[in-house]
Each structure stands twice: as structure tokens, then as C-alpha cells.
Amino acid sequence: MELKMQYERSAHKVGGSFWHFQWCTKYRYKMFEKTYYRNLCKILLLESAKRHKISILAMNLQSNHLHLVVQLPRGMLDTKALQLLKGYVSRVMFLQAPELEKRYPRRHLWGEGNFSTTVGFVNLEQTITYVENQDEHHKLYLQW
Length: 144
Known about the structure:
The protein is built from 4 helices and 6 strands. By secondary structure, the protein is of the alpha+beta class. The chain has one domain (14-143): Transposase IS200-like (Alpha-Beta Plaits, 2-Layer Sandwich), CATH 3.30.70. The strands form 2 sheets. A 4-stranded antiparallel β-sheet has the order 4-5-3-6, sandwiched between helices. Strand 4 (55-61) and strand 5 form a beta hairpin. The two termini are 31 Å apart.
């Protein structure tokens, strides 16, 4: 994957805000083993990101957690981006798949915690590769 290594530019600002996010389903339930839920979650993440001008550079959904590499608009905090992404996906997933309430009667799809760290241009391609290769990473982990 070739990345456009340019800073975001506007009238009086220049810079970039790249982040690696990871969060889990509540109770680590393996909700995304079902293809329908996995695809719905991906679509909703892309839709939410587009609405809030968040660029998703890499995405990987595992059965009970997900990883994203994103570029945030200048001035947006990671906590705000996580709130927007997690909130939208959760809300719409319960509207589109009401049977999820059997597993989550309080309609809380995501666990409270998350992981976020900044990624610079130097490590951006390595981080994207790491996220894209999560399937292999977890296969090795499960073999132990």
C-alpha cells in the first residue's frame, strides 16, 4: 500500500494526526464471528468516519475486538474520535440487528476500555502492516 505522505494543510495550519485505536466487545463476546455482524460493523465504521472527516487507513475486525489506524482532523482529540466511532456503530447496530439485545440487554456493545496511541510518519506503514496482519498474529497466539 502506497501512502500519501503529506501533511494536512489549511490556511494557517499544517500537520497530521495519525492514531492506532483498539477496543473490545463488552465481556469479550465473539460477536464478529458472524459475517453479518462483521460486515455491518465495517460499514458503520466507514460511515461514521466519513461523517466526521476521519480517514481510516487500516481496519481489522477480530471476533471480539478491532484495530484501526486513522488520521483525525486537526484539533480532534482521540477520545472524541473514539466516542464518535464507538457510539455510532453501537447505536445503529442495535437498530439494524435488534436480536443483539438478547446478548446485551442494556444495549452496551463495547467494553469501557480502549487503546489509543499516536503514530508518526516514520511508524505509519509498520502500524498499518501490524493491523492488517492481525489474523496471522492471533493464529500464532492461539497456537500456544
